[in-house]
Amino acid sequence: MQRSRPSSWVRAPRPAHSRSEEAWEISQTPWHAETCGPDPLSIAGTWQASLQELPIPNFAAIVEARLKEAARLASIEERLAGLEERLGRIEAMAAPLSTTLYLSTFAPEPYSLKRPIPIFIQETTGGFLASFVDANINTSGDTQQEAFANARELILDVFDRLHGLPAKKLGPGPARQFAVLRDFINAATDHEGTRPENRQEA
Amino acid sequence: MRRPITKEHAQKIVKKLDAKVVKNRTAHDRAEFYYNGVLICTFGIRRSSSKSIGHGFIPNDLHLTHHETLDLANCPLSLEKYISILKEKGLIADEPESVN
User: Fold this and answer.
1) How far apart are CA A61 and CA A67, in angstroms?
2) Residues of chain A below pLDDT 50
3) pLDDT in tens, A141-155
């Protein structure tokens, strides 16, 4: 017995057109410029002419020039970095600003000098160091002048202080300091210092 | 760059050495270090209120290097070790005569 097809059975829809057919149909569809803007295919005829008007022949030259410029800049940057590093090394090796000034008078203080005292002044981080190297007397100041003035005062203070102590209370360092100071400074005869009358010689 | 020696370091060293601070006419006070009653060395302390002000002259005063001075202030270098360094340099007699 032959079975009849159910009434609800329907055939599958016909497959869609191939892509090439769809493209062909689109190309045949009238372009509605008022809703879709200018027809891109309408300028197809002028595209090649426009391309020829572009500086395409110079494009390679432009790219080459820009690559050369980039390479030149990279080279300059590399050389600059090298110079900066070299400058840093030179600055690190360079001796700080230093000079030697001579103290030739203690006026108006009542002391006299047998000979000028060399004060070595050296620039350091945030100021200046002043040293009477032979006597190991060191001080500092914000400026060269201040450091020198502080050294001048300190030399007299140390001289007075060591002068005021009995020799047996001076260790090897201070005793040597005092010996050096006496080579340079005459104790003031009219100075009302702390010098004891019965002071033992160091 | 070396770490600077500051007033704070100087004050720590004064405390560690139990140094006697003497006021004088300069812009610096003087700290005196005595060992067995004998003056061994002195060093200056700037009167500025800034604790970070430089005291780069202290190593020479203490007969130490910059690094040793920082160590003395910051504890790695003990008082006993400092005294032994001074003895090695002949700045303290091995058997000091006590003077009181």
Assistant:
1) 10
2) 1-3, 5, 8, 12, 190-202
3) 888 888 898 888 888
Backbone phi and psi for residue A98, each to the nearest 5 degrees, phi listed first: -145, 155
Residue B53 in contact with partner chain A when CB distance is under 8 A? yes
Q: Express as a percent the part of chain B with pLDDT over 70.
A: 81
Domain that holds residue A82: 40-92
Q: How many angstroms separate the CA of residue A167 from the nearest CA in chain B?
A: 10
Q: Give the span between the Cα atoms of A31 and A54, in whole angstroms.
A: 29
pTM: 0.59
Mutation pick from A154, A161, A169 vs chain B, by most beta carbons of B within 10 Å, is: A154
Q: Tell me the C-alpha to C-alpha distance, in Å, between residue B49 and each of A6, B14, B19, B20.
A: 109, 17, 20, 20
Q: Which residues of chain B have pLDDT under 70?
A: 1, 25-26, 48-53, 94-100
Q: Report yes or no on A47 lying in a domain.
A: yes
The reply to whether A70 and A105 lie within a common domain is no
pLDDT in the model for residue A61: 77
Is residue A4 one of the residues assigned to a domain?
A: no
pLDDT of the residue at A62: 81
At CB < 8 Å, which residues of chain A contact B? 124-127, 129, 131, 136, 138-141, 146, 150, 153-154, 156-158, 161, 165, 168-174
Structure tokens at A144: 């060269």
Looking at the structure, do residues A88 and A105 belong to the same domain, yes or no?
Answer: no
Number of domains observed in the structure of chain A: 2
**Which of A129, A157, A169 faces B24 most closely, judged by CB atoms?**
A157
ipTM: 0.78
Contact assignment for B56 to A154 by CB distance below 8 Å: no
Domain check: are A180 and A111 in the same one? yes
Q: For residue A79, give how far its alpha carbon lies from the nearest alpha carbon of chain B (Å).
A: 25
**Tokens at residue A186, please?**
């005459």
